[in-house]
Amino acid sequence: MITKDMGIIEIVQKYPQTAQVFAKYGMGCLGCIAARYETLEQGAMAHGINLDAMLKDLNEAIKG
């Protein structure tokens, strides 16, 4: 399960299928420096993204 405290890069490395979800929410900068140290919560806040909705979609993506 993905949580708000996980690092963005950690999520994508562990669950590559989540890259599409990040792109859907306008976070296509997975290779940027900030993605290396930001948590999902920090990244969502920086981009003005609804964290709960994004978490739901990310966790749906890894269920399959």
TrEMBL record:
Cleaved signal peptide residues: none
Pfam families named in the record: DUF1858 (PF08984)
Lineage top rank: taxon: Bacteria
DUF1858 domain mapped to chain residues: 2-54
InterPro entries the record matches: CHP03980_redox-disulphide, DUF1858, ScdA-like_N_sf
Name the record gives this protein: DUF1858 domain-containing protein
Organism: Caloramator australicus RC3
